[in-house]
Every structure is written in structure tokens, then in C-alpha cells.
Amino acid sequence: MSRNKYDIIPYRSDLMEKARELRNNSTPAEKRLWKYIKGKQIHGFDFDRQKPIDNYIVDFYCKSLKLCIEIDGYSHNFKEEYDRKRQNKLESFEIKVIRFEERQVLKDIDNVLSEIEHWIFELSS
Length: 125
Known about the structure:
The protein is of the alpha+beta class and about 120 residues long. It has a single domain, classed as VSR Endonuclease (Endonuclease, Chain A). The chain has helices at about 15-25, 30-35, 80-90, 100-105, 110-125; strands spanning about 50-55, 55-60, 65-70, 95-100. Strands 1-2-3-4 form a 4-stranded mixed β-sheet, with helices on both faces. It is globular, with a radius of gyration of 14 Å.
């Protein structure tokens, strides 16, 4: 699988405003995880918050690794089919999607960060 940081992945420009709104209204779990991965804190890799990709907005995205991190909260309980379709589309761009439950991020951040590190090492080697 080719992971070229210069690959261009399409997005809908009309999602930029919605992404900005989501960044300004982050969930507690998103705020908590962002505290640990912003500013290249995690092994020097740069993550974006609420990144438009194709027809979707992902919670966190590292372009150089093509790594997407999604935090699933209560609203995802009723959107299994939508989430599956969305994940398949992201994977069609060779993006690795990892998911965490909101409560896991809030209560077990060390294991969340360990899993993220695992995928960083896996995808960067």
C-alpha cells in the first residue's frame, strides 16, 4: 500500500465551514485526545482536527501517515450503516481508520495513546 504524503485526497469545499464549527464545539473526548496529539507531540507527526475528506469530516487525520482517528460517541450507536459506508470510502483512499469509544478516551487515555503509537510505528515503517 502506497502512503505518499503528497497524495491528493478530494474533499468538498463546502464542508470547511462545518469542520470549523465542529472544531469550535468539540466533545470532551475530542478535547482530551487533541491535548495529546496536537503540535506534533506524538512522535513528530502532525494531526489535523475535523478534517474534510471526500464527502465526510473525520475527527483527526495525519496526512503523512494517511491515518484517521475516529471517536465514537452516543450518536454513532444509531449510524452503523453510515459509519461502515464512510469507513469503506476512507479506506478506498488507502487511509487507515482506527476507532475509539468516547468513554475509552475519557477514562483510559494511556491505552488509547498506546494504540495510536502502534499504528504510527506500523504505518511509518
